[in-house]
Amino acid sequence: MKALLVCEYREGKLQDGIYEAIAFAGRLGAGRSVLLIGRETELPRFDGKVIFADVAEAGEYHPALHRDLVAEAARREGADVVVLLHTSYGWDLAPRVAAALGATQVSEVVGLAEGGYEVPACTSKMRRVVRPRTPVTVVTLQPGAFPAGDERGGVPCLERLEVPKAAGAPLMGYEASGPKPVDLGRAEVIVSAGRGVGKKENLPTIAALAKALGGELGASRPVVDAGWLDHGRQVGTTGQTVAPRLYVACGISGAVQHLAGMKRAEFVVAINKDREAPIGEVADVLVVGDLHQIVPAVTARLEETR
Amino acid sequence: MKILVCVKQVPDTGARFRPNPAGTWYAEADLAFRMNEYDEHAVEEAIRLKEKLGGAPELTVLSVGPARVVEALRKALAMGCDRAVHVDDPAAADRDPWQVASVIAAWARGKGFDLVLTGMQSADRGSAQVGVLVAERLGLASATTAVAFECDGQAATVRRELEGGTRGVVRLPLPALVTCQLGLNVPRYPTLPNIMKAKKKPLEVVPVAGLLDEAPRAETLRFYEPPRRQGGRVIEGPLDRLVEELTAILKERALPARS
Ligand SMILES: Cc1cc2nc3c(=O)[nH]c(=O)nc-3n(C[C@H](O)[C@H](O)[C@H](O)COP(=O)(O)OP(=O)(O)OC[C@H]3O[C@@H](n4cnc5c(N)ncnc54)[C@H](O)[C@@H]3O)c2cc1C
Ligand SMILES: Nc1ncnc2c1ncn2[C@@H]1O[C@H](COP(=O)(O)O)[C@@H](O)[C@H]1O
């Protein structure tokens, strides 16, 4: 079995995800080569073949051109599996590559199981094992599912890939998505509100608990998207990564993108009316019940006994 | 101008899922279905564009699935789409993303859509593939994960959400396909008069048979509940006990560690 591992190069920097792809290929027991659309001065620390195309010619992202480069490298290497991370680069590019190669794509792989790949379903409440039926498979890996170990090392040998001319719509540039956020990264205690709080008018109750615990107010994405709190308070892959001593999740289901932002918390308490909510997987304590009843009562008790 | 919006009907994720008898997907009994959240943003964005361009574009909403998906189509009509297409596929749950995309592309091909909007991913399968595959099959330029969208009828400018608080800017000449991310807009609720009006809008039913010409590229071997992590404590029961226990835990944990 041969794997082609695709690097991601964003805002002038080689992304670390490639080491997770290398770890994954190790678990698969596959032979590995790496495709880098990047700079010759910044190579992955990898002891094998790196197929290299210059980012100055190919751009950091150009969907049609990158698709053609990945497909060409996969053919050249005789790859059975093409590996990307399930990131904004990977989920955009992978289906294009799969279509070009007549391959199956398996999205957001979290594990290997007998006969196939393990992927989440139903917002992580369930899992599936998927078996490809095509000779070539394109997979995207859930970030963090295959942590990089001591793979980093070695000096790659480079093989150049010609960058053809391509039509299409390249990435034109980057912009910051908003004002600098409140720094939740240093908070010792964070109490976060999720969609389960129901409406904006209920937020002061959650804020009161945060205050009673001497902590900061955080939020899951829907609370921010609805405009109830500003983006600076969002925890998760597209918000902040936090590592407080105590994290209290109120009405948050525990989607992977949220967990990625808070799973380094030392102690996690979740208040949720759904006993099966995936947040239960990372919670040290899951309180099953209605937050509208529990939160004010707990806040009152904390205030009276202080 | 012609715009196509693809919507999927998915179960409410608050539910408890159980495998079907074949163990390949969820059993539908007892589940409540709704329009996929990401697709609501796609519908809303299409309606806003129509309003902005003075009502000229014609909005078609399409869903592939069994009879129940008509509810999601009706909602899209009540929000403001002009016509709906139900590609009737009682076995839609068994199709892989490649097949679903091929069916949508087979229906849309040659119909002159200038813009196709889809959700970024579906809540149940969550492959984030169908939109891009439709574009690849139709030879359209495409961009995923739109958190801002502008269109002047000739080209679309999309801001893609990337990691780490960054957006990528892409300009797509039409015809093009865009997949919509959460937060792109705030979808409207259908009003009662619009719900009534929607009942008179055209809803065409197309059997899947004439559109499905691809075999599945993948199969599901198993569908199951992942083992829960051990060690976490679950507290349930009467409110006063919950409050008592939780208060004690929070007090202990919120205090700075004594060293
Ligand atoms: C590319 C991408 C990036 C993303 N980035 C982020 C991110 O950075 N951060 C983030 O948070 N999300 C992110 N998301 C969204 C994520 O997938 C989820 O949609 C989101 O985290 C869900 O938020 P939630 O848990 O508040 O809402 P829901 O999933 O709707 O959960 C609400 C919860 O509240 C519970 N509840 C309801 N009522 C009550 C009550 N009365 N009492 C107690 N519990 C109650 C329910 O049981 C449920 O578990 C991203 C998604 C994508 C695709
Ligand atoms: N059965 C379907 N009918 C119509 N549109 C669909 C269907 N399945 C997926 N889509 C569209 O494709 C997007 C991505 O779905 P998925 O690839 O399943 O994550 C969804 O948000 C929908 O817009």
Quick synopsis:
The complex is a heterodimer of chains A (306) and B (259). Chain A has 306 residues and is α/β, with parallel strands linked by helices. Chain A has helices at 17-28, 55-58, 63-77, 88-101, 203-212, 221-225, 256-262, 291-304; strands at residues 2-6, 9-10, 13-14, 31-38, 49-54, 81-85, 104-109, 111-113, 116-121, 126-132, 137-141, 157-160, 171-176, 189-193, 216-219, 246-250, 267-272, 285-288.
Description of the molecule:
The complex is a heterodimer of chains A (306) and B (259). Chain A has 306 residues and is of the alpha/beta class. In chain A, 26% of the residues lie in helices and 29% in strands. Chain A has 8 helices and 18 strands. In chain A, strands 7-11-6-1-4-5-12 form a 7-stranded parallel β-sheet, sandwiched between helices. Chain A has a 5-stranded parallel β-sheet with strand order 15-14-16-17-18. Chain A has a 3-stranded antiparallel β-sheet with strand order 8-9-10, with no helix packed on it. The longest helix of chain A has 15 residues. With 259 residues, chain B is of the alpha/beta class. Chain B is 27% helix and 29% strand. Chain B has 6 helices and 13 strands. Chain B has a 9-stranded mixed β-sheet with strand order 9-8-7-10-6-1-4-5-11, with helices on both faces. Chain B has a two-stranded antiparallel ribbon with strand order 2-3. In chain B, α2 crosses α5 and α3 crosses α4. Chain B starts with a strand and ends in a 5-residue tail after the last helix. The interface between A and B is large, with 93 and 79 residues. β13 of chain A pairs antiparallel with β9 of chain B. Adenosine monophosphate (AMP) binds next to α1, β4, α3, β6 and α4 of chain B.
